[in-house]
Specification:
By secondary structure, the protein is of the alpha/beta class. It folds into three domains: 80 residues, Winged helix-like DNA-binding domain superfamily/Winged helix DNA-binding domain (Arc Repressor Mutant, subunit A, Orthogonal Bundle), CATH 1.10.10; 98 residues, 3-Layer(aba) Sandwich (D-Maltodextrin-Binding Protein, domain 2), CATH 3.40.190; 114 residues, Periplasmic binding protein-like II (D-Maltodextrin-Binding Protein, domain 2), CATH 3.40.190.10. The strands form three sheets. Strands 3, 4, 5, 6, 7, 10, 11 and 12 form an eight-stranded mixed beta sheet that branches. Strands 1-2 form a two-stranded antiparallel ribbon. A two-stranded parallel sheet has the order 8-9. It starts with a helix and ends in a 9-residue tail after the last helix.
């Protein structure tokens, strides 16, 4: 197990000296241990040159399996500890910043009241990064939007909510006649295709909601004219408020306090997005993670339309 950990640190740091520092051992000792491992295996695990240390094809396979073995060990240790001690230790939750800010606070408030001895750590990243960290076992449970296509993950439905078009309240030259007319009707709805010639404000690459919006546009038969890309739905709404384009948002982020400047319009196809709890399929799910999911369910969160 120790040698597997050594090889993984070299792979992660791509440098023997940095890996040795992280492991708190001498660099010559680490190099010697890796060389001994390679001799026992009969293959070279790393290319050693003047630049970054890279894995060989055999090394890539070794690292893949080593990660699985070490994850299984950590899962087993955690399960045995919980069988003895009950709920405790750490709980790492992954989420995108905006989604986490809206759905997590009431769940965490109830969770920390019931389990004050559990240390909760939040990891805020883009969807692609969260998926990888969860699949590799660095995150216990992540809140992601469907589809989750990584076969290493399993999911449990959290909630489903409608999506809305966001328009500026003041008319702009780029607005079609259909969009200009919407501001006269509070309960209006519009087809997604009517946005085909409008500047669209979209989340950056790596965010799952970006893919959701692009797929909806494709299903409506057009490729959107992307004007701005941002990592924040709040920023996207601010850009709309200043007349720089339109955007699409899930219900949970509607800014009711800005309805004099923003107009939220229903889409006639009634698109939705579904959030799920995502977990590593082969990793032991801690009692703390199970308790978090149960608390959400007790709060009436499943399929509640985001309310």
């Amino acid at each position: 197990m120790r040698l597997l950990e050594y090889a993984l640190e070299v792979y992660r740091h791509k440098n023997f000296t940095k890996a040795a520092g992280h492991l708190h051992i001498a660099q010559p000792s680490l190099s010697k241990q890796i060389a001994k491992l390679e001799q026992e295996l009969g293959v070279s695990l790393f290319y050693r040159g003047h630049g970054a240390v890279e894995p060989t094809p055999d090394g890539v396979r070794f690292i893949e399996q080593a990660e699985k073995i070490l994850n299984m060990r950590r899962s087993l240790e955690r399960e045995m500890h919980e069988r003895k001690e009950g709920i405790g230790g750490d709980l790492t939750i992954g989420t995108t910043a905006i989604t986490g800010g809206h759905v997590l606070p009431p769940i965490l408030r109830a969770f920390t009241e019931q389990y004050p001895n559990v240390r909760v750590r939040l990891v805020e990243e883009a969807t692609a990064k969260l998926t990888e960290l969860t699949a590799k076992g660095f995150i216990d449970v992540s809140i992601l939007a469907l589809p989750v296509e990584d076969a290493r993950l399993t999911t449990k439905t959290m909630l489903t909510e409608p999506l809305y078009l966001v328009l500026p309240r003041t008319q702009k030259p780029w607005m079609s006649k259909i969009l200009q007319g919407l501001n006269s009707f509070q309960e209006a709805s519009v087809s997604l295709r009517s946005l085909s010639s409008s500047p669209l404000i979209l989340l950056k690459q790596g965010f799952g909601f970006r893919r959701t919006v692009l797929e909806l546009c494709a299903e409506s038969g057009f490729q959107p004219q992307i004007a701005y890309e941002t990592s924040s739905i709040e920023t996207a709404q601010s850009l709309v408020m200043n007349g720089l384009g339109v955007t699409i948002v899930p219900e949970m982020v509607l800014r009711r306090d800005l309805e004099r400047k923003l107009h939220y319009v229903k889409l006639d196809s009634n698109p939705t997005r579904t959030l799920v709890f995502a977990m590593n399929r082969e990793r032991y799910l801690s009692m703390a993670a199970k308790a978090l999911i149960k608390i959400h369910e007790e709060q009436g969160g499943v399929n509640n339309g985001g309310e």
